[in-house]
Automatic annotation (TrEMBL):
This is Glycolipid transfer protein domain-containing protein. It comes from Collybiopsis confluens. Coiled coil: none annotated. GO terms for cellular component: cytosol; membrane. GO terms for molecular function: ceramide 1-phosphate binding; ceramide 1-phosphate transfer activity. Pfam families: GLTP (PF08718). Residues 21-159 form the Glycolipid transfer protein domain. Transmembrane segments: none annotated. It comes from the Eukaryota. Keywords: Transport. The lineage of its organism: Eukaryota, Fungi, Dikarya, Basidiomycota, Agaricomycotina.
């Protein structure tokens, strides 16, 4: 078995066409993020992983119920408008916010190899989710940031071969993570602009 990034679907492999972001591939790649938080290893991140998992389920339920109208994220959202609850629209909105937080944190870590994860995730939180949270949730995230593992331990786990073989070279791990993050950042920004332009983020 290969190191972690080879075991999950990369956002770089999520097709994007004129019609939009492929829903099924996006959900598969998003599920891989949960494994990333497993590597972070702290129970303090449980509220984050629970939120991401729950929102993936909401979007997936809509996709499975209306596959012909939900092939892309954009079509899925458009075709839910006019309904009373818009569960998948809200779920995807919060999923994108959780992914934006993860992406911003890891981009910060990748940009400077001296930055510890606690600092990177704190900066990522301030750039993304913090403005949407009340005092109680901000407190939960503050605890989670402080519980981040040391940078060297996290990257060692990303590189480790679960079968006991030699770890992947640091350069390969960094290269794959850069591709994963660049593609995720592109999707998040594309979808955030789509929500904002059409007012799909209103009413929640």
């Amino acid at each position: 078995m290969a190191p972690f990034l080879d075991t999950v679907k990369s956002f770089a492999d999520v097709p994007i066409t004129d019609a939009g972001v492929d829903t099924a591939a996006f959900l598969d790649a998003s599920t891989g993020v949960l494994g990333l938080f497993d590597i972070l290893g702290s129970t303090a991140f449980a509220p984050v992983t629970s939120d991401i998992k729950g929102n993936i389920s909401k979007v997936r339920a809509r996709y499975e119920a209306t596959p012909a109208q939900s092939a892309t994220l954009e079509e899925l959202v458009k075709n839910e408008q006019g309904e009373k609850k818009r569960t998948a629209t809200e779920g995807l909105m919060w999923l994108l916010r959780g992914l934006a937080f993860t992406c911003a944190a890891l981009l910060t870590a990748q940009a400077d190899n001296k930055v510890e994860l606690s600092t990177a995730f704190t900066r990522g939180y301030e750039q993304t989710l913090k403005k949407f949270h009340g005092i109680l949730v901000k407190g939960i995230f503050t605890v989670a940031m402080k519980a981040c593992p040391y940078r060297k331990d996290f990257y060692a786990k990303l590189a480790a071969d679960p079968t006991g073989g030699p770890p992947a070279p640091e350069s390969k791990v960094s290269e794959e993570l850069d591709k994963w993050l660049a593609a995720l950042d592109l999707i998040v920004k594309r979808m955030e602009a789509f929500y904002e332009k059409n007012g799909y983020n209103k009413g929640f």
